[in-house]
Amino acid sequence: MLRFLFDRDTWQEVFDSFSKNKLRSILTMVGVWWGVLLLIGLLGSARGLENSFNRLFGDFATNSVFVWGQNTSKPFKGFQEGKRVRLTLTDAKKVEDNVEGIEFVVPRNQRQANMVRKFLSGSFSVAGDLPLLDKVQKKKLKYGRFINEADIVNKRKVAVISDEIYKQLFEKNEKAINEYIQINGINFKVIGVFKTSNVSMGPRSDVHIPFDTFQQIFNQGDRIGWIMITGQPEYSIKQIEADAKLLLKNLNKIHPDDKRAFGSFNLGDEFAKVTGFLTGMQFLTWFVGIATLIAGVFAIGNILLITVKERTKEIGVRRALGATPYEIKRQIVVEAVFLTIVAGLFGIITGGWILIGLDAAFGQGDDATIVNASVSIAVVFIALLILVVLGTLIGLIPAFKATSIKPIEALREE
Amino acid sequence: MLKISDLHKSYAIGDSSLHVLKGIDLSVEEGEMVAIMGSSGSGKSTLLNIIGMLDIADSGEYILDGLPIDNLTEKKAAVYRNKFLGFIFQSFNLINYKNALENVALPLYYQGLKRKKRQELGMFHLGKVGLADWAEHLPKELSGGQKQRVAIARALAANPKLLLADEPTGALDTKTSYEIMEFIQQLNDEGKTILMVTHEEDIANMCKRIVRLRDGVIMEDKKVNQVRASQYV
Fold first, then answer.
1. Is this model's pTM higher than 0.90 or not?
2. Is the dihedral of CA B116, B83, A323, B40 positive or negative?
3. Do B49 and A313 touch (CB under 8 A)?
């Protein structure tokens, strides 16, 4: 069989029968070509979307949940319903110590504040943060650094500002680092400028100042705005959320069934929804692509069936000259596989062009909707393998048809 | 060389069956040149097809060169055809997208010969029929006589024991017919055993023996004085 595949005559025969029916062969191949094109194009786009999604969310610990206090909805232990619930640093500490599977608990505070620099001013949201924040929500710093331990310990009046604020409070090309800005009338030294993210999880913060500094200047005491909890990868963030809330209710004397006392936003949940959608899209792509491929391969089988019918006499002559049925079948199957593979390769190449086109049109810049649209080599090989298998199977139909006619009848055919 | 005894063959036509060969006994010695004659429907083509293993008899014995031909599977028949038999058809049956040389070399391909060897043998046989210069030409670029000569070269290529010709001159004019017959006679002179179906008396008379069929039985089987085709050419 191997010798047969490497025999020049085998391919001469394939080429001859192809060039004899050029238009028809090409039209036939269009089906398979289109199928592969769809498969590659769609899979690549799906991957591109996934990439862009991952890029957007890559800076966040997706296995995380935000929890904040609201008002109670049930009376409990002598407290009436409607009690204002405020989280404290103690709560955060207890959650971190007692709930299983927790990676970090990040307490956060945020407020609207007036900011002034020279003659420029604006109202922005100021957040008091620990250096830990950078671990769960990576800040893309354009200049300078994020808040560090020393800033916290010394309650330094330093600020990390977003590039949006920089644009509003600074002149073009002006250096921001080590310059001073006023927040609620207090001077803060700018130590870093970060890039505003396209996606914000939780309230958006324009300026980060050290947690303890925030406590001090806003008279915050022990109270915190909300906590961000991240779970270890092997733990379910849903369970962590439930455990943490129950603990918090316990600590704050709230009815265990009170659903409104704490608000929360489970990032893991939201993330799972989107990844589920992407998985569904990939599945759909495979389904559509392979269904089209099958249709295309069937078209090839169909054409070969007609070709075989037309070549009945020739096949009769060949058999009179000593071609065994096996040799005839083998030739037809090779033709079928050859047509599918050539069409498939064209599909892969043009599919690649489409992905290149998509990348040029939508894949540039930081907020691209499709990032690095591509398919893996493995996918290409799987597609080719499917083509070979389908081509062989479909080739068997005309092959058996060709040898089912007796040579004497085949010779009589005009 | 060839021995057939009590050969029967019938075809089913709708519900009834048509008895085409009703007990044929025939033996052909090596080096003979036999014409099988008969009106259409006499069973002459069926007989040739059975001898050519393109068709299978219902009953009877067929021995080719000491080898009993029975229980033929398609594969076995293909191998026997390739090894023992050369076919010449009325309508030439050349493969139209292959050139003369490729057509001649085709049986050698199915014998599993290497390409180079095939080309060599093919050219040799094309040369024998005087068409070495036409090796690269497609059948449509050849005249009827040339086509039949290519077909003869193809039949000879595999060096068969027996050459079977089904109305080899049926599609040719008289002059070309005689040229072809001259060739076939030459082959016979060289020792090839030839069996040919024809309904033309003059062609039959160029053979050495005439077997006449009528309604599925042999009416007459006689040796004739061979008329040499060369005197007409």
1. no
2. positive
3. no
With beta carbons less than 8 A apart as the criterion, state whether B184 and B194 touch: yes
Kindly report, residue by residue over B92-124, the tens digit of the pLDDT. Answer: 999 888 899 999 999 998 888 888 999 999 999
HSE toward the beta carbon, residue A396, CA cutoff 13 A: 5
Above 80 in pLDDT, residue A61? Answer: no
What element of type H or E holds B8? strand B2-13
CB A180 within 8 A of CB A190: yes
* C-alpha–C-alpha distance, residues A182 and A163, integer Å: 17
Q: What's CA A214's distance to the chain center, in Å?
A: 37
In B163-192, the residues whose Cβ lies within 8 Å of chain A are: none
Residues of B in Cβ contact (< 8 Å) with A7: 115
Query: CA dist B55 to A382, B23, B47, B67, B78, Å?
Result: 46, 16, 9, 17, 12
Cβ neighbours for A364, distance < 8 A, ≥ 6 positions apart: none
Calpha distance A54→A371 (Å, rounded): 9
Supply angle C-alpha B127, B131, B136, rounded to 5. 110
Let me know: does B195 contact B165? Beta carbons within 8 Å.
yes
Compute the nearest-CA separation of A329 from chain B (Å): 12
Partners of A84 in the β-ladder? A71
Q: Please, where are the H alpha helices in A108-197?
A: 133-136, 149-153, 163-169
